Amino acid sequence: MTLYLVATLLASALACLALGEAGPPASVVWAVCALPAMAWAGLRFGPRTQVQSRPLGPDGTGRPLTQFAQHSGQPALLAEGGRIAHANQALLKVLGLESRSDEVLGMPLDNIVHPKHHRRLAALLGAGTASGDAGVLTLLRADGVPWLARASLFRGDRSTVTLLQFDTPDALPASGPDSQWGNRLSHFAGEILFALDNQLLVTWLNPQWERATGRPVADSLFQPFLPLFHLEDRNALTKGLRQLQAGERDSLSLEVRTLAGRALGPRWVELRAWALDLPASGETGIVGMLLDIDQRRRNEEALRAQRRSLHTMLDNLPGMIYRGQNDKHWTMEFVSEGSFELTGYTPLELVDNQSASFADLIHPEDRDFVWNYVQMRLTRRERYELSYRIVDRDGQTRWVWEQGRGIHSSRGEFLGLEGFITDVDSSRGAQEEARRRLFFDNATGLLGFSLFLDRLQHLFVHSAFAGYPFALLHLSVTPLEEIAATHGPAMAERVMVEVGKRLRVVQNDCNGVARHGNGFAILVSDFRPPSLAWASPGPADAASPEGLQHLADALAGMAGKPLRIDGHPIALQARVGIAPAPGQCSDARAMLAAAALTASDGGAA
């Protein structure tokens, strides 16, 4: 108004000057030029009526709501009809929308308010709400981070415009180097990162969510988190997340199936989550990540399927597959289901000798043979293959065939045994028994006479031109006839078995012992001290006549120790004869007969 009056006065003055130059004007013209001056003087110096205006806000400034919102240093906005009519720079800065102020105008107010406070917002904007403290509202920044702010509401007189003013946050989100690196990390991370509020609604997702699921991040925010997962996994997931919020656990790690992938079916992910305190609201949220483990789980399922197929095949095999230890009990670590049909014992009863050890199932007459044969093969790191008898749970004797090998680590350390045992028919068992007797003695574990004679013949022929020494001794046990007459032939046989077991220490890959008549034939071709450790130290040259006599005395002393069988003390005497040099005999049998004759004539006793 003041500017208008000044312009009018200036125009009147210019008009008077122009009329004065033109000559004496009429009085009416001068009166018209003077009217603006008189109006200004009346307004300036005339009486005034004071109109009192009521303040529109608690500060009593009396400024319009728009100017108040625009010039306020605190975040504020004007809402009309549920839409944003104006937002000041302070609010745009806090929300991260400074460069998008034009888009904010006319935007529904619900867009910047967290869904859980939509009802509270509707109540505030209702006609019945008075001006004053409006409580707490959760606003949403452009990056999805929630901002809990206390709001104050002011209404204009006779106006539908409402002013909402918010407390200034203690600190704006950081924008320094650390924050920039954090934003880059979350943006380029290969895993899905997420944040949940107290109601388990999604409040933030990194871009990997859209790359992995094909769903825009904006469409997924403020949606329930649990429906994104398979129905069977929701109970465990809900329980774990609630325990995190309640402080009952520090972290959560679950393998669950998500339904949010690009594929039609569920996809396995590993969910790792931690609790996050929200000081502004006093609530506890959740932050975490989703790791894609679908390929790993599929591989595991394939492996389990292969194992099921393997177990099915093993269970249907006509026999028993095992893995065990190399001890006298043949302790089993794993046994297939075929053990029940073979032995009458379930795998649980045989593993770790729970009900019976496998050694107890082997026929008493075959136990030593099985042990010695397997040990010999293991020493050479060879597979073993043998037949023997077992006694099943019902007391029935059956022949079995076993094949196995020793297991060694990459460093050569022995780890155990693994193999397969199956039932063989009686004819096969009889054939195997006959074949085995050609090579080993069942009762003593010594060499069979045929195998012993074959070795002796080999040494006899080749020693003549090879030049390596060997010795043949014969040990006779007396008084064997008196024992048979007093206690019966069975007792005499048991005496021979016990003496044979004593002589097993002599046997190795080069030296051997076999039963021959009423005594034993001993073949020595390895004269090294470790192979003769069973004899006390003797002459330096063990192959000399003095050395051979020392061995004969040691054998006689070993075999002549008294025995006690079934409570009967039995005194023994052993005589050892040394065979003459190979050049003095026609063949191996003649050499053995000469040694036996020497022993019967009174050899070393």
Neighbour order of strands in the largest sheet: 2-1-5-4-3
Could you tell me the mean pLDDT? 81
Query: Which radius of gyration do the C-alpha atoms yield?
Result: 54 Å
Largest sheet: 5 strands, antiparallel
What is the count of distinct domains? 5
What is the CATH topology assignment of the largest domain? Alpha-Beta Plaits
Fraction of residues in β-strands: 15-25%
Helix residue percentage: 25-40%
Shape: rod-shaped
Q: Give me the CATH superfamily of the largest domain.
A: Reverse transcriptase/Diguanylate cyclase domain
Content-based structural category: alpha+beta
Q: Helical segment tally?
A: 21
CATH class of the largest domain: Alpha Beta
Question: What's the N-to-C terminus distance?
Answer: 150 Å
The tally of beta strands, per DSSP, is 21
Uncertain spans, ≥5 residues at pLDDT below 50?
Answer: 48-63, 171-176
User: If classified by CATH, what would the architecture of the largest domain be?
Assistant: 2-Layer Sandwich
Defining traits:
alpha+beta, signal, five-stranded antiparallel beta sheet, 21 strands, 5 domains, Beta-Lactamase, Biofilm_reg_signaling, Rev_trsase/Diguanyl_cyclase, PAS domain-containing protein, 605 residues
